[in-house]
Amino acid sequence: MATREREHVYLPLKDALECVGVKINLFAVVAEIGAIIRSRGTDYVLTLKIVDQSLPILGISVNFFGDDATRLPHVKANGDIICLHNVMMKAYNGNHYCLYNKRFSSFALFEGITSIGINPYEISSKYCRSDGDSALLLELRRWSIDHLPTAALKESTLQLRSVKVGVVFDLVCKVLHVCETSNGGRILFVWDGTDAPPLQFQGNLDNGLDQDPLHLEELPLSREVLCSFPPVGTVLRVFSNKVFKEFSHLQESQHWVRLCNMNCEVLSGVWKGILGPSSKVRLLSNVDDSVLDSLMNYDERMMSSAKRVPLTCFPAPSHILEVNHENAVYSTLMDSLTHNEIVHRSKCIVRVVAACPWHVEHLRSPVTGRYRVKVTLEDPTARIHAYIVREDAARFFGASPEQDLAHNMNALLGIAEGASGEGGNSTYRDPPWVWCCLRSYYLEESDPWGTRRYRICDTELVG
Question: GO biological process: any one (predicted)?
Fold first, then answer.
């Protein structure tokens, strides 16, 4: 319980800029939450950006130092309010900031506009409350309703399901994994529970499957990492040549963030996120409103079998393919990749991104006369290679009359009827969503997970 003492004098942030070298008291709104990191010494460091009526945009950074990370402020969400006593105003190279000294400074944290309570949810050991604090708290809440920085950010915030090429936006997402690239950059694997829009493809199918890689990262992710990914929703790869200070925090555990001023492009038919020079990474609390909204929407999706399927296959997948397991439970490709059994069957909704060979006259082996085709399949969660061979291939292709096979293959690969090039460079392809059954298997008993493969089974191309 906070003790009470004489009234404190709180300076507006704009006036605080004139008090370099002086201990001051501040009451302000938290606009940005930094990562808790190790200093060059033994302390932990946290930086918060605070704003008020006098500096609603620029604000001031407050640097906290502590020998124990648990003694630093743990702000629940942007927009919460902080009371600071005896912090020192500093300036370096023309930039002003406040320094919180663990020996004589103190703080209290209050919920923002979502609350009407006047009691802090976290205080430091030296904090002493005064009677005038409640009035300032309520005044800041009233101001925050219309001027809170995050309110303006909502207009530029998109979900993964709404991303577009060339549009600069903010993304509230969970960072599931971080890896380093060969040039010293970073790749963030981020997720918000929604499906990125399916893309059209342009390229010559005769170039094989390499033009549509399974992933953008240099090396495939380990099974351990994949098993930490959610089974539903797109995991976007976000590339950054700049190493943000928050990355060290993100590499330790999965964390929700707001990626500010990012954009997307398309590489090899895959969405690629980019953090540029003007981008920012803002850490979010698990109880931030935008985080709770994302989690609530995801929970609703997981409880509905109709919402678990790709959001863009409404009202139903194409009937080009038919499967013989009508009662089988739907699985995403990520469900299958993280399945606890190596050998299993899955019923999925996918798009056939590419096939090799794809020309009807080349589908059969010139040696054995049997069908053998390798395809690239994708859904919002992953891409995989799968084989159509042996008795499964006879069933798959045998359902189509010989004279209709070319037409049906074009339809499966998304080649419009009469399109220029018939799969050549000038052809845009938009493969439909289709049902298919998959069976996993492995090649080597000594390395079953490393040699796992997929075959399409119990599926027929009917057109």
Answer: regulation of telomere maintenance via telomerase
